[in-house]
Amino acid sequence: MRTSIATVSLSGTLTEKLTAAARAGFDGVEIFENDLLASPLAPREIRARCADLGLTVDLYQPMRDVEAVPAELFARNLRRARHKFTLMRELGADTVLVCSSVDPEAVDDDALAAAHLYELADLAQDFGVRVAYEALAWGRHVSTYDHAWRIVEAAGHPALGTCLDSFHILSRGSDPQGIEDIPGEKIFFLQLADAPLPAMDVLQWSRHHRCFPGQGGFDVAGLVRHVLRTGYAGPLSLEVFNDVFRQAEAAPTAVDARRSLLALQEEVGAVRETGPSAAPTAAPAVPAPVVPTGFAFAELVTADSEPLTGLLAALGFARTARHRGKPVDLWQQGEARILVNTGTAVRRDGTRIAAVGLESPDPAGAADRAEALLAPVLPRRRAPEDAPLDAVAAPDGTELFFCDAGNGARHTGWRADFEDVGRPPAAPGVRRIDHLALTQPWHHFDEAALFHRSVLGLDAEDSVDVADPYGLQRSRAVSNPDGTVRIVLTVGAAPADDTVHAQHIAFATDDVVAAARRLRDAGAPLLPIPANYYDDLAARHEFADGELETYRELGILYDRDEAGGSLRHCYTRTVGRVFLELLQRDGGHRGYGARNAPVRLAAQHAVRAARALGDG
To answer: Where is a divalent metal cation bound in this sequence (predicted)?
Structure first.
């Protein structure tokens, strides 16, 4: 299907927004009135710019507070409309969005509303314009899509139809099933937006917290299926009011927006599958998801490897291999593999996770899907003998490599690029990487969740807000079905505080007490946890004799889920932007210890403050 985006969804000048939309692959745009009013370009020049970019002007919006008002006010509204329709003819837009009135003078009279909309549509028809009437969720008298349709149907004008907006429909809890009773040719436009599900005033919710489909909690796909069953043949268009998007760069936001529509079309069956038997269609082809099955490796870049490798050695890792042509060492324990790279330029914030290897049953297919969903494919400088590896960039810049499943333990695939220099421990205390936590730039959090869901095929859990001493830290986990790939996406309360809001690697162990003791005895300091935490733990849970004292001694935190599963975990101090976690899951516990996160964050702040004073 054709795709469109409202200029209000992007930041920048109108020219910047149009350029970003075109480069992201959109077919058309909705011109938001404020963007036109602020533009130095005349409507004819905007029309020409859109044509040069290959964009159609699919909608001009909004026209507010038109219908069911006193006669004198309606006469003024028609004069205003005549001016707008003249402008639209110059702009090349043939459809105008008319929102249900919120004017205090509007009256609750459907017959009057229908008569006014008929007269408006009759005037619009003289200019070659159609009127799409939309129910605002906070409309004074018309606030639901079915009510708006009844008025349109009663008016009965060929140039009058309805505009359906997923936010206005789903935010009120309306049943979208009734959309199928509307003739497709009378649905003049479809606007799509998702949103989280907070409890707040609907107007505030709409104006500040909409997001692209797949980033929130609405069943946008279900609504679109109902619309398509009517025979609707117009574009899928995004209209998203979001404070973050309006401050972020327009180009990556437009790409994220386009990806959301590609993923949405795939979900509703409007995207054809690839293959020789696929029927020819104008819809884009997106290869099927290839869900990763495990972590092949995590790569850390560092200017000074000694603190990092000392920490890995204390954890029981051994240096087992060296890259044939690059200053990259492989450290391994069990199925956990860490690459330490000292040859890549290190940013000001020091040691960080730069790349992740994902084991995949079909690396080429995974890369093809990533490219089809607009993930930036990374060029690689490699010697002829290097293993061919496809990589894409996640929104935070982390490189994601698609590796043959299982090749991490054999001298094939990426592992063939390394020469053996040692052996992994015979009796590992760490079994594998349990999960990674990657801090996102504040304006890429929703984009990152959509990216990992759509590009990698991972399932997303609900967002969680965690109390930080200086605000809130927001996190959202994505994982494959069996939990062998888990990634926690976070954005912190203080974006500049990279020491606290850092990345981390969590290692799974069968005995966190033994692993923590080994780490401590090797001289690697564990994160100190306040005594008050353990006093509270004693009040909430019963422990075996000496168990709680052991946790207190080693800084081990404890969590229990509703099904009786338990999580025991502890943390190292931070090196650069990275700290490490040891964790033991029992009884099927699948969480990440969110209850303990405020304690961990406060402890990390305390360590950082002590270091600043020269005491730690």
So the answer is: 134, 165, 191, 239
CATH class of the structural domain 3-268: alpha beta
Residues paired with residue 473 on neighbouring β-strands, in sequence order: 466
Question: Does 581 appear as a known binding residue?
Answer: yes
- Tell me the whole-structure pTM to 2 decimals: 0.80
State yes or no: 323 annotated in a binding site.
Answer: no
Rounded distance between C-alpha atoms, residue 602 and residue 422, angstroms: 39
What pLDDT digit, counting tens, does each position of 356-411 carry?
A: 999 999 999 999 999 999 999 887 666 666 667 889 999 989 999 999 875 444 44
| Residue 414 · residue 407 · CB < 8 Å | yes
**Which CATH number among 3.10.180.10, 3.40.50.300, 3.40.50.700, 3.90.190.20 corresponds to the domain 294-612?**
3.10.180.10
**Residue 550 phi, psi dihedral angles, 5° rounding:** -65, -45
Specify whether the backbone of 346 is left (phi greater than 0), alpha (psi in -120 to 50) or beta.
Answer: beta
Alpha helices in 355-474 (DSSP H): 363-372, 445-454
Is residue 165 part of an annotated ligand binding site?
yes
584 is in an annotated binding site: no
Check whether 385 is labelled as a binding-site residue.
Answer: no
Q: Which residues of 287-322 are buried (b: 16+ CB within 10 A; e: fewer)?
A: bebbbbbbbbbbbbbbeebeebbebbebbbbbbbbb
